[in-house]
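Per reviewer request, we include the raw input and output of the structure prediction for the construct analysed in the revised manuscript.
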Amino acid sequence: MQNRSPKTSKKSQRGVALFIAIFALLLISVVALALMVMAGTETSLNSNYKSSVQAFYDARAGVEEARGRLWLGSPNSIMNLLISPVTGVMAVGQVAYIRNPAGAEVVNPLDMSIGNAYADRQYTNEWASAPPATSTMIASISPQAGVAGPLYKWVRITPKTERAANMDVNGDGNLDNTQPLFYDGTQQMLANQVPATSTAFQVFEITALSVTPSGSRRMVQYNVAATNLNLKFPSALTFDGLTPNYNAPSSNPFDMNGNDRSGANQMAGCTIPSQPAKPAVGVLNPADITVTESTIPANRLNHYLGSGGTPSVGDISSLLPPGEQTVSNLQDVVQKITDVANNVIQGPANNLTAAQLGTASTPQITVVNGDLTLNGNNTGYGILVVTGNFTFSGNSGWRGIVLVVGQGNMIENGGGNNEFDGAVLVAKTLDASGKPLATLGQPILNWNGGGGNGVYYDSCWINNATSGLTYKVLAFREISQ
């Protein structure tokens, strides 16, 4: 028997050790390589996710720009480019794009060629046709002072229809593509089904496409409509509370008139249908008709014109929405208006600036928390809310809506030749310390003097007052790309 030499055994061991070392080195290399690949993949995923999230928020910025520019109060409002001055709505088939190119690039959503990364092919899915060549093109205001804004490419604004939204609103089994949709604060309805007394506003679809430099694409869409305050005015002057305290003027030129557009200040270009005659003065029960009529001078009864008898003082409790007949609901209305107001002023305030008074084309929503005094030549346009005492004199007047809701005290001192065209509502919801009452208190109107002042119901000025409301989001969705 021959034994292996120690020398040979050592060589064998060295060979095995070398093999193990090489295998271990190879294994470590594989693990290191795998870790590098994993790290690279994770970095790529993070980068893609970051780019995708950036694209999403860029698209959101686009729809927000468009929503903001629908508001008439915006210095960059585009409503005059969208709304017909004749019909007051954006016509079905009309399309507007806000474009936001980076540098000198061309952003043309109407070009449907294969190589155009910014083509609006989603329009065909909604409207079953290509976007019209007559689409209005508007420049974005996103870049400011040379600083680039969000990287969305375009935002499209169209009127919403059943076909575009793929939504059978009236349940007739047909997706109408000819009637725009309106929203009354509760539900959407076709334009031809909006009641004449409704305060519904047109619904718009706002769609935005964003594309990042790395190629991430996102598309989002809003449905928006003007904030609906659900206010209705069944009379020229409404006393919203029991046993109103009305000190009627004895001036011969003074009038209260519930016939639509009976005042001396007609709104130019108004096309909405004239409304049926309403009471000159509205109260909440038959007993208050007698109370109110007893304060009117016997030789001035025929200065209160409108529906009903002479003087035109009527019970409008069944016509006044429930939301305008309780303290809590009226307080909610004041808060909603405050939330969307152009101007919120802490009273006591003496007069308003020209900007706060507004104009016919730029009506303002002004809330005075406390007392307001107007004297001299002041004519306001839009919605005025006064939670304290509202005192006016001289040639002060308003075109739109006046809500004296809070202390519920309206005072006219001295005669003038201006007037209130639209509607006025007086309601006492607060006690002297400013705390809400349990029930509506006694509304007060002291009209000393008179002159040519008066209150004239005017549906055009009421409608114009609400045109300054901001647009709220009714629905939001992301469209897959």
